[in-house]
Amino acid sequence: MPGEIPLIGEKFPEMEVKTDRGVIKLPDYFVEKGKWFVLFSHPADFTPVCTTEFVAFAKRYEDFQKLNTELIGLSVDNSFSHIKWKEWIKEKLGVEIPFPIIADPMGQVAKKLGMIHAESGVVTVRAVFIVDNKGIIRAILYYPLDVGRNIDEILRLLEALQLNTKYGRAFPANWPNNEIIGDNVIVPPASTEQEAAERLKQFKCFDWWFCYEDKATPEEKEMARKFLKRVANCQ
Question: Is a pLDDT exceeding 60 seen at residue 186?
């Protein structure tokens, strides 16, 4: 195996990383500010798919900030390459990249996070780590080299994770536009017979093991709907 992937629910591995904005200690750099962060890797600078992703991340940076979340990229290129690539994107595409990129020419960070592509042994896959404000890994996404990520789905997932922390509820498929329960959220399963018997009295239920309620605010639902609309319309 080229690398071992950290697990959801584990603390993000402590490390010092070199970026085009200087040395950053993860996850402390963001945790000390009370921030969530999304670390995403890409195979290389000056490549077409990666360029489209960076533009998409940059155009949605304000949405990440509204969710108290910072972005940080990573590739095997050095900081000189990162700086020049950012300049090229601004000059040619009119988009300024507002977040740092980790320089990992020896692949040390990528190996520690299990990001190395199995076929090449040196190229980082398109991994996404969503880390909360306590430094705990809450989600991991992996995409192949040849397919770019959908940034709005990452935003929807990020918001759902934060609301899960806030409300202690699970979120259905395609929330807040679920085919069965709409914009409601799912109540955790009962753990005792007595609790199961009370469920039908406390919540809307199909059965005691499938209960739901209206918990999120209209503003929270609307934000998630905005992300889903952009996923559908590619805007």
Answer: yes
